[in-house]
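Researcher: I'm preparing a figure for a lab meeting and need a structural model of a single chain. I don't have an experimental structure, so a prediction will have to do for now. The sequence is pasted below. Please return the structure as C-alpha cells so I can convert it later.
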Amino acid sequence: MPSFLDFEGVYDKNKRYVVHNWSKEDFTQHFGEESIYNENNLIVQTPPKDITIKAGEMREFGQFEAYTFTKHFVNREMLREVEKIKDLKERERKEMSINIAELRKPYENKTLSEIKSGEESPMMEKLREEIRNEEIAKLKQGNKPTKETKGNKEFEGLE
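Model: Understood. Here is the structure written out cell by cell.
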C-alpha cells in the first residue's frame, strides 16, 4: 500500500511521534507476534501485544509503532467512508484511492505528528486545553466559603 510513511532503511529509535485516534471508535493494533511454520501448521512462538488507542485519545510511540498504527488506522477509516457510498462505480473508485499515497496524505497528517525538540506537540496542546477548560469551569463556579475543622478549632476559608 503506497504511503508517504514508506521509506527505505531502518526505523529511527530516537524519533518520537504522537498518534491521534480521531475516529469515534477505539482502534487496536497487534505488535510483536513471532510465528513459524512447521510443515503445514503455523505455530505462534510469541503472542502479539495489543495496543488500543481509545476514541479521541492521543498516544506517544516510537517510529515503527507510530507508522504501523497510522497505516492500519488510515486503511480502516478510508474503508469506512467507502461503505457509505451507494453508487457502485463511485464506491469502486473510492476503494482504489486507498492505494494512492496523495489521497492517503490528509488522513495520515491528521493521525500522525512527529515530536520535535523546541516545538509544541499536539499532546501538550490538548492537555493544556483540557486544564484550561477545567480551570475556567472552577472560576465560573465561584469561590464558595467552606468550613474546615482542624483539631477542636473551626476555620472558615475559600475553596
